[in-house]
Amino acid sequence: MIPGGTFFQGDDEDRTILAQIAAGQKELFRLLVTRHERAVYGMGMSFFRNAEDASDFTQEVFLKVYRNLSHFEGRSRFSTWLYRIAYNTAINSVTRKKEYQSLVEEDLAADHDTPEGIMLRNLARDAVSEAIKDLPERFRVCVDFYFFYDQSYREIEAITGYPVNTIKSHVFRAKKILREKLSDFSGFGQGGAE
């Protein structure tokens, strides 16, 4: 149950919104959707690889979150709880033929960058994307949550069910593999892949 302003960990804005929802302002749930929709959609794209399925997935996740909001106890960040629901929904939905694809494939170029900067960023993104594709799926999942979703090892454990030491090992081994694969790419061989 959402504590009414008592114990929360994590983001202050989520905490404030959750307290207001617990106080009866259910319409504020849309603010949580706005804050986290892009990340959930990105996870959907990673698993389903098409916009329509990712959009359906996003709606399904937020419907589950809304229905189960009273079960959120506030012992972790709201985003960790949300990503756990999203991850489990994706794992249960995806077929064996489809496999996880890293969030790095999303276009991360800044709108205000120069054409040369955009080109270099795209080349770097493509190189990292190609290198990440070769990682085992369990490594890709851990790397994505750690670097792109900014989740701690404990939060990744809560989301995926992998033990913390396994997650640390996966991230460490993935970084080592990526460093080796990207050593020829300008800038990555001098520690840029860490």
Task: Please supply descriptive tags for the structure shown above.
9 helices; Arc Repressor Mutant, subunit A; disordered C terminus; mainly alpha; 194 residues; 2 domains; disordered N terminus; Rna Polymerase Sigma Factor, Chain: A; 65% helix
Describe the model.
The structure is a single chain. The protein has helices spanning 12-22, 29-48, 51-68, 78-93, 115-133, 137-148, 153-160, 164-181, 188-192. The protein is mainly α and 194 residues long. It folds into two domains: 1-99, RNA polymerase sigma factor, region 2, helix turn helix motif (Rna Polymerase Sigma Factor, Chain: A, Orthogonal Bundle); 103-194, Winged helix-like DNA-binding domain superfamily/Winged helix DNA-binding domain (Arc Repressor Mutant, subunit A, Orthogonal Bundle), CATH 1.10.10. Helix 6 (137-148) packs across helix 8 (164-181). It is globular, with a radius of gyration of 18 Å.
Structural class: mainly alpha
CATH superfamily of the largest domain: RNA polymerase sigma factor, region 2, helix turn helix motif
CATH architectural arrangement of the largest domain: Orthogonal Bundle
Gross geometry: globular
**Mean of the pLDDT scores?**
78
CATH topology of the largest domain: Rna Polymerase Sigma Factor, Chain: A
End-to-end gap: 39 Å
Q: How many discrete domains?
A: 2
Number of helices: 9
Q: What is the N-to-C succession of helices and strands?
A: HHHHHHHHH
Largest sheet: number of strands, sense, barrel closure: none
Low-confidence stretches: 1-10, 105-112, 187-194
Portion of residues in beta strands equals under 5%
Helix content: 55-70%
Q: Please report the first level of CATH classification, the CATH class of the largest domain.
A: Mainly Alpha
| Total beta-strand segments | 0
Radius of gyration equals 18 Å
